[in-house]
Amino acid sequence: QVQLVESGGGLVQAGGSLRLSCAASGRIFSVDAMGWSRQAPGKQRELVAMISTSGGSTTYADSVKGRFTISRDIAKNMVYLQMDSLKPEDTAVYYCNARDAYRKYYWGQGTQVTVSS
Fold first, then answer.
1. pLDDT band per the 50, 70, 90 thresholds, residue 38
2. Contact 57/72 with Cβ under 8 angstroms?
3. Which residues make Cβ contacts (< 8 Å) with residue 39, sequence separation at least 6?
4. Confidence at residue 28, expressed as pLDDT on a 0 to 100 scale
5. What is the helix, strand, coil percentage profile of the chain, to 5?
6. In degrees, to the nearest 5, what angle opens at C-alpha 10 toward C-alphas 69 and 19?
7. % of the chain residues with pLDDT over 90
8. Are 103 and 32 in contact (CB under 8 A)?
9. Do 105 and 98 meet the contact criterion of CB atoms below 8 Å apart?
10. CA-CA distance, 18 to 84, in Å (whole number)?
11. 101: exposed, middle or buried (C-beta count within 10 Å: 0-12, 13-18, 19+)?
12. Is residue 4 within 8 Å of 22, Cβ to Cβ?
């Protein structure tokens, strides 16, 4: 099993920034990618960004490209999401996720991000 704990959510005005952190523990050696997803009220959960744990390649949702940056610290088993130029439509619960070599996904409990206009 892989355990994930998010932190860093909160309330911010439009145009502001927040940095989310995710601490991973457990069977870390089995994880080949980590990332962030979000779910707004009444909407489906969507993938925001992913990063491979080996080469560091990244993918982003079109809605956040150029504004969000995902990064990792392998030594600390941490993944970060730097969110800049935040918009009210970015308001959601943000979940850290990890994918293992068998394509099994693990999820954190989520952290609320609220962007006021």
1. very high
2. no
3. 45, 46, 92, 93, 95, 110
4. 87
5. 10, 60, 35
6. 20
7. 90
8. no
9. yes
10. 7
11. exposed
12. yes
